[in-house]
Specification:
- By secondary structure, the protein is mainly alpha-helical.
- It folds into two domains: about 50 residues, Ubiquitin-like (UB roll), CATH 3.10.20; about 240 residues, Receptor-associated Protein, CATH 1.20.81.
- The protein contains 16 helices and three strands.
- A three-stranded antiparallel sheet has the order 2-1-3, sandwiched between helices.
- A hairpin with a 5-residue loop joins strand 1 and strand 2.
- The protein is extended.
Length: about 400
């Protein structure tokens, strides 16, 4: 397997290399034997040689944060670390971003302002975290906090995506099989049974009538199908349509409550990270508003208004229906201890685990149900097509 290894060499410069090894531990050992201090090992896929297209590699914020934190922990100051990262990069977008930040720092601008100059790569949350850390002079802690934040988000996202892959494949294959039967096989059976249509069973007549209609108007139906896909894609690109669709999905009894739990977990985690960085609660809640679903944002504004009036955060979020029963109790504990940022992180972790358990249960229950429905649909089409043959064979006997 092929692994991407990032390490520090003897001159305390970051190097990136690709190693073939049976596992991550072996790749780390190979790099260590070369005198490198490894700080990340990524990959694990089998080596596949593909032609290079010459496309410039994009700037990855997470990788930049990991490398910068490693250099700072190795003893370099911020200017030296940024210069090291800029010097090791080949020409491309990544080097342009790093050189731009180094130039801003050399002009005397703070690190947060240098980062804010590239909003396409650094989110407002990232900039706010760095800016808050500059007040205390602990940029390393802020970077470590952001890395942990990203890892938690990626953990939940990967869990949901991996659980959705198999059902999506099943649905795609099922739709293709049923489409092939209905649009190709059934019209040809309709031609065979055309002379005996009045003697066929009722449901077979319906199926073959549909097949005959498809055979005669195939081009028109195909054009209408393409138009429907285009209109649907355009509609989904409109924020109003997406918001209306989200509201309908959220009304589903089981799914809607889990989606709200997932949204609240993002709210708690992000607000907690900002508060631990030293940002006031009201400012933190204002910054995380864009992360919430559209119909939850007025509730968050209501909670901020209550906090401004002097209500505790636990009561404000509860009154705005933005606190689950577990979250409400834990928020009260956080207010008593004075460490609300850490408590919000713990609440988010609890709810993320709850969502992950629901996703596991749902996929285990949904997969066999989906296979059963697809099997019944395909079987019904086949039986209705061959039923006249079965009856004809019975009459011959």
């Amino acid at each position: 397997m092929r692994f991407n290894v990032h390490a520090l060499d003897a001159a305390q410069q970051v190097v990136a290399l690709t190693l073939d090894a049976p596992n991550a531990a072996a790749a780390r050992d190979l790099a260590t034997e070369r005198g490198l201090s490894v700080f990340s090992v990524e990959g694990g896929k089998r080596a596949v040689v593909l032609p290079r297209l010459g496309r410039k590699s994009g700037f990855r914020t997470a990788l930049f944060t990991v490398e910068l934190l490693s250099l700072l922990e190795a003893g370099l100051n911020l200017v030296e670390a940024m210069q090291t990262l800029a010097e090791k990069e080949p020409a491309g977008e990544r080097q342009d971003v790093l050189c731009g930040m180094v130039a801003a720092i050399n002009r005397g601008e703070p690190f947060s302002k240098a980062v804010a100059a590239f909003p396409q790569h650094f989110s407002p949350l990232y900039v706010a975290t760095i800016k808050a850390s500059e007040r205390t002079g602990n940029v390393k802690e802020a970077l470590g906090r952001y890395i942990a934040y990203q890892e938690e988000l990626e953990r939940v996202k990967k869990k949901v995506v991996s659980a959705s892959i198999y059902p999506a494949i099943l649905m795609a294959v099922g739709v293709l099989v049923i489409g092939f039967l209905m649009l190709y096989v059934v019209p040809r059976f309709a031609q065979v049974y055309e002379d005996m249509a009045h003697t066929l069973p009722f449901f077979s007549q319906l199926l073959l009538s549909f097949g005959s209609f498809v055979g005669k108007h195939g081009l028109v139906l195909f054009s209408a199908f393409i138009c429907c896909i285009g209109v649907g894609a355009w509609a989904l690109s409109r924020p109003v349509v997406r918001a209306a669709l989200n509201r309908r999905i959220w009304r589903l009894p089981a799914l809607g409550s889990r989606m709200k739990t997932y949204q609240l977990a993002r709210l708690y985690r992000t607000a907690g990270m900002l508060m631990r960085a030293g940002i006031p609660a009201l400012r933190a809640l204002e910054m995380v508003e864009e992360l919430l679903a559209v119909h939850l944002r007025p509730q968050l504004r209501q909670a901020r208004s209550l906090i401004e009036q002097g209500h505790p955060m636990s009561a404000a979020l509860g009154a705005a229906s933005l606190a689950t029963p577990v979250a409400a109790r834990m928020l009260v504990v956080g207010e008593r201890s004075g460490d609300m940022g850490r408590m919000l992180g713990e609440i988010a972790r609890f709810h993320d685990d709850e969502v992950a358990r629901f996703v596991d249960w749902f996929t285990r229950a949904f997969e066999p149900l989906l296979m059963t429905l697809l099997g019944l649909a395909v079987g019904a089409v086949v039986v209705l097509m061959y039923m006249p043959i079965f009856e004809l064979a019975g009459n011959i006997k």
